[in-house]
What we know:
Chain A is an alpha/beta fold.
Amino acid sequence: MSDIATEVATRDRSGVNDLSTRDAGKGTRKTTATRAPSSVAVYREDFSTQKSVPAWLNELRVKALDRFETLGFPTTKNEDWHFTSVAPIADRSFRLAVLDPESATAESSDRRGSSRRRSDALNALGVKADDVASFGFGQKDWHQLVFINGIFDGALSSNHALGGNVRIDSLARAIEDGAASVERHLGRIAAFDQHAFTALNTAFIADGAFIEIANDAVVDKPIHLVFISGGEGVSHPRNLIVAGRHSRATVVESYVSLRESTYFTNAVTEIAVGEGAHVDHYKLQRENDSAFHVGTTQARQARNGTFHSFSFAIGGALARTNIYTSLDGDAATCTLNGLYLTDGTQHIDNQTSIEHIAPNCPSHEIYKGVLDGRSHGVFNGKVYVHPEAQKTDGKQSNNNLLLSPQARIDTKPQLEIFADDVKCTHGATVGRLDEVAMFYLKSRGIGAETARMLLTYAFAADVLETIKLAPLKAELEKVVLARFADSAT
Amino acid sequence: MLEINDLHAGIGDREILRGITLNVNAGEVHAVMGPNGSGKSTLAQVLAGNPSYEVTRGTVHYNGQDLLEQAPEVRAQNGIFLAFQYPVEIPGVSNAYFLRSAYNEIRKAKGQEEVDPLEFLDLVEEKLKLVDMSEAMLSRSVNQGFSGGEKKRNEIFQMAVLSPRLAILDETDSGLDIDALRIVAEGVNKLRSPENATIVVTHYQRLLNYIVPDFVHVLANGRIVKSGGKELALELEEKGYDWIPSFADAGTAGATA
Lengths: 489, 257
């Protein structure tokens, strides 16, 4: 193992030159050419400090790092990143959070927290059970796994999973155990050949959640994964969900902070939806307003498999959420819904992709955005209908509400159809508050601020109606209402 | 109660009202009639404070106060209610929540305590009966998916709940069949009192069979060209708007303006 680590470190050093040469060769602006190697070099340096892992995973990591170096951070010339500059992330040298002295010592009762051992990072942020409870939607009986800067914290978690046909565990432990489906699926669903951030995450696979549901098993309580981050470093949470044939589960991922700080979360979740299985997935991006977040959720759906995704994004200085699914089997169904609320100078980007590979698959998508202040929102929704995907029924819409003249939205619904017997619609709208509706409310005695809040809330709440998990819906309604009440005063 | 004096208003450069003078006292019902484009609806909208219209000249006093200085919500809180010709759909806001918010804002403005959802439900139950609306309508989004008749009944229902001092009905009869018309008119009549006043804006005389006015004013080209009692409406119905001598002239002036 140590040999491999050395070998990697050597390769890395040579990679520095490779990368700077490549950048210069492409005629990238000088600033890019000078800054990119420095932050990439930091990733490489921290890469070599990682705990040793089984050979297959090490191979995957090495391949991914190599790919990351080849791709480099995406520029706005990359069509997938046209409206989002990741310079604020690429320009910073984020150390691996578990190595970051800031996060390792802050409010830690355990002063040995500065050690590089993961287990000592447990209370590194001084997170208490009460803090975790505040993110729990008031539900004590849900399965809850807590991650501090991407590393599983058993003491803060409450896992009610009974052994046997459901495993809800930390990925690190599953890797250690040699769980067969980890090796079978990890890195196979979330492609990293074209996605630099996914490649970077894969190079740093260490921990996250591992959920495996046996055939026909039903997880009756939702599984909540809480990622609490802080300090100034980067974490790469990696989650793997494997839902067996005709199984059923609801998974919620919350990305949160306890206080303002400039860290970077680079998360990837892979989901294998088995034949006839049903997975409801919720992602809540509620990082603090100084944080950076790039998160990719990627699913593959077998025949008759159902995948419902809801993505809520309200936090971060710069945040990107990718929700990708591939309808591989006949009559698989997906729903991708989302709501993003931006304010101040926030930049929140949402990208979705639905690949219709097999025939007879319905896909439905509604994303809504409310943009205030001088914030910038981006929506890019791709729907590809492959030649074999006859009888595809695809509906996609993106509606945006601009609350201030300086707010900006770039929306790009994309529909590419290569089959001839399909029913597909898509559309995007951008609007301001309806003046006629405003007048109607005022004419009934409702003041301007209340009227504005009521209409804005109604616009956003509409998509929250699609959330089936009642406690989560109630919580998001509260969060949305609080945001608009703030901006109304 | 309401004193309108030489009111001029329009949208952009287009002047629509060209000098309206009208007094409405408590206890009175005034009908404002006229063909399309005569300025009837503009008058209703300007009184309610629609910001799309600009008042260029004249004054409006309501209970002695300068109405034109007041924001639309303040006018409503002071007892003015406009039943819209085209009630607005507001997806995502329930009828009950909307109306309770309005009711409570008006109470707050009067220094009264707000009511909670249960108290409010008790309070609106009899008002629903007044316009033959089911309780289920309360939980639906404001006017969304309502039929034309349901929308108009919802306007009168709101009026019944908010109990204004001055109600302005803008073409409330348009698009209603005779049964709906009767229901709406009965609702309005039940709300009439010596303290309240009503302005009924309409194109047709038929609504006035049910809501009998004390005064009828005929509007043409932004001016009141004739005023009279309730018999004026009947005469108009029989002879048409061209029967009014000054109407043809005013119409011509309008065409060239």
